[in-house]
Structures are given as C-alpha cells and as structure tokens.
Write a structure and sequence with these properties.
Elements lengths: L2 H7 L1 E7 L4 E7 L4 E7 L4 H4 L1 H6 L2 H10 L10 E8 L5 H12 L4 E8 H8 L6 E6 L3 E6 L5 E3 L12 H18 L7 H9 L4 H9 L11 H9 L4 H24 L7 E6 L1 H4 L3 H14 L3 E5 L5 H14 L6 H13 L12
Parallel strand pairs: 1-4, 4-5, 6-9, 9-10
Antiparallel strand pairs: 1-2, 2-3, 6-7, 7-8
Helix pairs in contact: 6-14, 7-8, 7-11, 8-9, 8-10, 10-11, 11-13, 14-15
Length: about 350
C-alpha cells in the first residue's frame, strides 16, 4: 500500500459491543461521523472470541456502506478501536485482540473493556472513574500515567450485584416469594404479571423456563421496578437503595485505589439503568457519593458508548500524528449530538 492510499484510510472504526447491543461507527481522522450501525449483543463467553468478533462483520459492512465504502474492497481505516463487554480478564483481552487483528478492517487494532469507552466519553482525557450499570455492572479508573483500577466483573462469582439483569432477577425473586407466602407482600408481583400480560409473576417465571418468553425480556423489569418504587413499595425501594450503594461502593473503591479521593475527579455514570436518570436512583447515589467522596464530580453520560471508543481511536491517531486532536474531538461530539438515535437491532439495556 503506497503513502497516498494509506493517507486515504486515516480514521477510526469504533466498536462498542455490550451484552445486549453493539454499535459500530466509521469516523474520519477529522472527527466526522461517516457511517454507523447497530446490532445485537456481544457474548464471547458463549460464542468464543473468534466467532463473536466474526459476527460483527455485517455491522462493519453496514457502517462502511453508509460511508460509501465496501467491506470487500480492502482495509477500511487506520485504527480499529474496540471497547468490548466481557473483556474483563487479561487473557480475554488477548483472545479478543487476536480475533480482531485477524479481520481485514484496519491497519491496527486495540481492545479495551467497554467501561473504558464510557470513561472516555465522559471526560476530556485519561483521568477519572467510570461505572457502567446497564445489563450488568462494572467499574474502571484511569490515571494519565496509565495506572488503572479494575474489577474482575464476573458477576456474583466476584462479588458483583445489580445492573438490569440483576435487578430483574431480584424483582422476580421477591415477586415469586410474595405470591407463595415465603416473603413479604410487594406490588412487584402484580406489576410484573401485568407487564407481560400473564396471571402472575410465577407464570412469568414458568414462561421463561419453558422458552415461551425470551429471557432477555426480563431486562424490561428494570423499568417496572422503578414504577413500583415510585408508589412507595418497600421492597422495590430497597432494591434501588442497594443498587445505589453498589454503584457508590465501586466508585469509592476505585477512587481510593488511585489516590483520588482528595482531588476533584470526574465519576462518569452510564449504561441503560443510569442513563435513564431515574431520580430515585440518581439522587440516592449522589447523596452517597457526596458523603463518601465529596470531591467526586458525578456526571451521567447519555451519548452512545461507541462515542468513547471513537474518541479513544482519535487519541491514538493524534499520538501517531495521523489526525485526531481537540478539533476532531469537538467535531465528533457535535456529530453525535446532532445525529438521531440509532434504533436498529436488539432491544434491552446497554
């Protein structure tokens, strides 16, 4: 490939792959959004790294087509910047990196956990803490010198609790026990039944077990939980209080590890549960952070997380003298602010 052809490639293929949805964006070196696409969830823990990455090809092709490019015509861009869910352990990052490098999409590629994308989307540089509470929950912290604070994020095996999936499971647990008498009464039971048009929460559980109701639809119960909590239901309010405590706990531990408790530091909050800006959760969380980390600066990011992956890619271009920089970042952020929401693909929380 000659120098002129390489120059035409300068830009970023940004990928944000979450548990329930995946966004892809092709971005020019000047920050112009050239093409986007959305698809279903990314689950290398079930599909294997190679197959999971291969499944991204139709989305890459769709974003390329919107940009007027063909995926079969050769390399699309300089840098592939992929922020991926389930890239929690070093060995997982290595496997996904190898699978991504095998695809003919860019001259180089880099993989990071998707929470780093959220962090970059909510900050101007590599300093701060991010907590994602979407389908699952995770937290990272980062300093300019490269030091990080991370958690294994393997679910209950490593002490995690909450996110849309966790809140749905807890809501079902309490609802079923309320119906059969093992637990206290809660309005979650009739609300869950009504949401799915079934006679009881137990009937909902049976429908999921028998494959008559897709399990992913249980993520919808996060919204039901907040609706019930607004009526003053003690069980629902207790779950939201616990979720706020978990999010605050992650943030405070990350701030402590990076010695940032005594400095004004952004705490970026994102994912479907947090991006919904439910006052019962956000106000509770803000109070907890104010008490435990008074200098923390919480901010909710509602922009698509793929913005963070693209920004990380532009940072890498800037470091190599191939584009990026403050003007490109401003153009990229403005481009996403002006674009209508991406609506194709799977439903569910980020």
């Amino acid at each position: 490939m000659d120098q002129q052809q390489t120059a035409q490639l300068h830009g970023v293929l940004a990928i944000d792959a979450g548990n329930s949805k995946t966004d892809v964006a092709l971005v020019g070196a000047d920050g112009t959004v050239l093409g986007t696409a959305r698809g279903g969830g990314f689950q290398p823990q079930l599909d294997g790294a190679g197959q999971a990455v291969a499944k991204l090809a139709p989305l890459v092709a769709a974003a390329a087509a919107e940009a007027g490019l063909g995926i079969a015509d050769g390399l699309l861009t300089t840098r592939v910047s992929a922020c991926l869910a389930n890239a929690d352990l070093p060995v997982e990052e290595q496997q996904l990196q190898a699978a991504l490098a095998a695809q003919p999409w860019g001259l180089s590629s880099v993989v990071a956990n998707d929470t780093f994308g959220l962090l970059r989307a909510g900050t101007d540089g590599p300093r701060g803490v991010a907590v994602v509470c979407g389908a699952g929950i995770n937290c990272v912290g980062l300093l300019p010198d490269g030091r990080t604070a991370r958690f294994p994020a393997l679910g209950r095996l490593t002490g995690d609790w909450g996110g849309g999936g966790g809140l749905a499971a807890e809501s079902m647990w309490h609802a079923a026990r309320a119906e059969d008498g093992r637990g206290p009464a809660t309005a979650l039971a009739p609300a869950i039944a009504a949401h799915f048009g079934l006679p009881s929460a137990t009937a909902v559980a049976e429908a999921v077990h028998l494959g008559q109701l897709e399990r992913i639809r249980l993520h919808e119960l996060s919204r039901v939980l907040f609706e019930v909590a607004e009526t003053g239901d003690a069980i629902a309010l207790g779950l939201i209080d616990r979720q706020a405590a978990e999010i605050a706990g992650l943030a405070v531990v990350a701030l402590t590890r990076l010695e940032l408790l005594d400095e004004a530091t952004p705490v970026v909050l994102g994912g479907g549960v947090l991006a919904a800006r439910q006052p019962l959760l956000i106000d509770n969380l803000a109070g907890r952070l104010a008490a435990a980390a008074p200098l923390a600066e919480p901010r909710v990011v509602v922009a698509p997380p793929v913005l963070g992956a693209a920004l990380l890619g532009l940072d890498q271009l800037a470091a190599a003298g191939l584009g990026g920089g403050p003007a490109a970042e401003r153009r990229l952020r403005a481009g996403y602010a002006a674009r209508p929401p991406i609506t194709a693909g799977a439903a569910g929380l980020a």
